[in-house]
Design goal:
Length: 299
């Protein structure tokens, strides 16, 4: 199958590219915006997603049969600071990609986020109604609707906080936390911010399965355990043999005093239906952190 990975130079995209090309069964091409990728034997296209003509040319050249679309302004702060750009990249480009998938008869797998939900209750099912509260969440929810309207064959994969080893020079929650603790610096982690963290390779298991089976509809692919960021950080500290007492609990009052939003922040995804449907194992936090340790880059 000819597979096009849009946003392949990003944190998750690099893992998706590696997995899909490893099997040797597919012809895999990836896109990047500003980060020129490694010469890894795959075809790479530089594409600015705010340019709809460029996206059309991309489809003409790549002639994909399946598309995994991960490209986005994925940082909540960046989307708030430049909302017009976030709308252009996250919504308008997704609309164009969906329409082109329809025209080319390609199945579209669009990667979305738990931030489409309002964070009042948490542990949301696939069939619950989104009500985003941030600009980033709104753009991803609008993009989901573009996918549903424009593409003929689609899967939307919502996920929660994704952790793993990023490309050198890039950040991620888990390695930043480990670095802090190794250097004896305390880490303040909220006890009332809830997520279902997922190790990046476990998210890629779900995406790769969808490429193979083309299962349509909304899918929730995240970790099995619904935990606070404090529990998440403490579990990483313990698994890496670091001083867990440096992981300091922080509640809503502490967050308000620190100038952060004190509104409810209970996200996280109930993935049981998707895991059953895709016949996937559902790794928990301990499994994910064990895999993170096993995959740690050498010194
Ligand atoms: N990471 C998480 O915890 C998480 C959680 C939930 C959902 N998601 C979703 O997963 C997807 C991937 O996230 P990620 O963490 O891998 O993000 P990331 O590391 O920031 O990667 C974003 C990708 O989008 C590309 N991109 C951004 N703006 C572009 C533009 N204007 N033109 C062309 N390409 C552009 C980037 O290209 P360059 O870097 O080459 O410019 C990169 O390939 C996103 O859709 C995000 O909403 C992520």
């Amino acid at each position: 199958m000819r597979i096009l990975v849009i946003g392949a130079s990003g944190f998750i995209g690099r893992y998706v590219m590696r997995r899909l090309s490893a099997s040797g069964d597919h012809e895999v091409a990836g896109t990047y915006g500003s980060q020129s990728p490694a010469n890894d034997g795959n075809a790479w296209w530089q594409v600015e997603l705010a340019d709809t003509d460029a996206i059309e040319r991309l489809f003409q050249q790549a002639q994909p049969q399946a598309v995994v679309h991960l490209a986005a302004i994925a940082d909540i702060g960046a989307a708030e600071r430049d909302p017009d750009r976030a709308t252009a990249v996250n919504v308008a480009a997704t609309s164009a990609i969906s329409r082109l998938c329809e025209q080319h008869g390609a199945h579209l797998i669009f990667v979305s986020t738990e931030c489409v939900f309002d964070g009042e209750r948490g542990f949301y099912r696939e069939d619950e109604t989104p009500r985003p509260t941030t600009h980033y969440g709104r753009t991803k929810w609008e993009a989901e609707q573009e996918v549903v309207w424009e593409a003929a064959s689609w899967s939307i994969v919502r996920t929660s906080i994704v952790y793993g080893w990023p490309h050198p020079g890039k950040g991620n929650f888990a390695p930043s936390l480990i670095d802090n603790l190794r250097n004896g610096r305390p880490y303040h982690a909220p006890t009332d911010v809830l997520r279902t963290p997922v190790y990046v390779e476990h998210l890629v298991d779900g995406i790769a399965r969808l490429v193979e089976v083309g299962h349509t509809g909304i899918q929730h692919v995240a970790g099995r355990d619904w935990v606070s960021m404090h529990e998440f950080a403490a579990a990483i500290a313990e698994a890496f043999g670091l001083d867990a007492s440096l992981v300091r609990p922080m509640d809503a009052d502490d967050r308000a005093r620190a100038g952060a939003s004190a509104r409810p922040d209970r996200l996280g995804l109930d993935c049981r239906e998707t895991m059953r449907r895709l016949n996937l194992e559902h790794p928990g936090l301990a499994d994910g952190i064990a895999a993170l340790r096993a995959d740690a880059p050498g010194p």
